[in-house]
Amino acid sequence: MTQWYYSDYEHNRHGPVGDADMAGLQAGGQLAPDTLVWREGLAQWQPWRSLAHEVAAPAAPAHAGFATAPADAPAGFAANPYAAAEPRSPYAPPRAPVQRMADVYLDGHVVHAGFWKRVAAYFIDAVIVGILGGMVGAAIGGIMGAGLGMAGSGDVGSMLAIQAVAQLASLVLTACYYGWFYASMQQATPGKMAIGIKVVRGDGQGLGFWRGFGRYFATILSGLILGIGFVMAAFTQRKQALHDMICDTVVVDRWAFTAYPDQQREELGTLTWVVLGLVGLLMAGLVLLAVGLAAAAGAR
């Protein structure tokens, strides 16, 4: 039986699978005409359109992964199949483009991300956004300060103006951060990618930039009501926070709405526990600091 290997839209290699499995993958939308595939006897990876006629009738899709080429594979079995498909000219478009977004599968079990996974992801993103915002604020302060001639002037009005512009720029930057990552192929910010979750529409479709952009401002509303909007994720049926309900979004496992729902995980995971532990230590430190400051003030 012929053994096939194929590459998905993220350039991950899978296989070996048989003829019937390949036919099933095609029927399920996993194999696009430009998807690169390889079998024994081929000099290099080739687009599926040129080899699809070789497989049998459709069957249930199978999936198996591998990280390196088989030991006895010929030279045509490239470690990166897309390296063979790239054009020689750096100015020409790729010859074998792949899907930008995964197909949505609605017939599998969906694991919704719980409150604690979301807390861990939010903490990671908050650190990243805080660093970016601080850099932008410092740049704006330096530029505007030099322009207004504030060096050593102590002009309160100018300082407030700089602060307002920096805060506005930071707000827009943060919204763009979330909007851009939610509209990306991973459908998740770096924090959510690290935890293994993503944000999609209620039907599994992608958000798009502007919905992700607006969702950030909806999270502000969730925080304004004493954080109750965030806590709702722990009690609602689909683990939706208030901003999810407003924007028609759900936070799910990274493998939800894909052809591999069995790879979803209900448990928190090691990284989530580590991040939550750091959050707990930080909160405990802040509480002790507040108690210490209060005690010092009372002793005066």
Would you write up a description of this structure?
- The protein is built from nine helices and six strands, in the order ββαββααααβαααβα.
- The chain is α+β, with helices and mostly antiparallel strands.
- The protein folds into two domains: 4-85, no CATH class; 115-282, no CATH class.
- α3 packs across α4 (156-182) and α4 (156-182) packs across α6 (209-224).
- The longest helix has 33 residues, at 115-147.
- The protein starts with a strand and ends with a helix.
Question: How would you sum up this structure in a few lines?
Answer:
With 300 residues, this protein is an alpha+beta fold. Strand 1 and strand 2 form a beta hairpin. It is elongated and about 85 Å long.
Name its key features:
300 residues; alpha+beta; 2 domains; 4-stranded antiparallel beta sheet; two-stranded antiparallel ribbon; 6 strands; 8% strand; elongated
The side-by-side strand order for the widest beta sheet comes to: 2-1-3-4
> Rough shape?
elongated
Number of strands: 6
Helical residues, percent:
40-55%
Distance between the termini: 85 Å
Beta content: 5-15%
- Chain-averaged pLDDT: 81
The total count of helices amounts to 9
CA gyration radius, whole angstroms: 25 Å
Number of domains: 2
Quick one: biggest sheet? 4 strands, antiparallel
Series of secondary-structure elements, N-terminal to C-terminal? EEHEEHHHHEHHHEH
Give the class from helix and strand content and strand pairing: alpha+beta
Low-confidence stretches: 57-68, 83-100
